[in-house]
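On to our target:
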Amino acid sequence: MKAKNYRRAKGVPYTRKKFIHGAPQPKIVKFTMGDLSRNYDYNISLVSLQRAQIRHNALEAARVATNRHLEGNLGTSYFMRVLLYPHVVLRENKMMAISHADRFQDGMRKSFGKPTGRAARVEPDQPVMVVNVDENGVDVAKEALNRGAAKLPTKCRILIEKVMD
């Protein structure tokens, strides 16, 4: 299965778990990391610029890359949250790749496909991740979100907002 086949968000999302048997669990394990109990000065968010589908393993890779950089440089003086949840179930009509496969396979007959993964749909200007830090951690958070954005299949930008109390 190639990831680029599932990058564009087209058609109706396939999300009803009531009717889907054997849908895989999302690979993303934690949605919040860091210290939630503190109040932070800056709210830095990673925002998608395009409409796209982000697969669950890409979200997990972005989360791990961002969290590893934050944890290594700031310790526990940050709070990070992944805002997307992969609801859409992706299907694949598996094809044989052997010689004379046309004798054994039905091709596009009954080609609905089996569940193979999950994805989250993103609209333009929708935040993907949010990091809350103090003033001394703004540059570290920007670099961490840049590293996370490199793992995502869509173009992103970083927005910095000062929290007003």
In short: The chain has one domain: 21-162. The two ends are 48 Å apart (CA to CA). The chain has a mean pLDDT of 88.
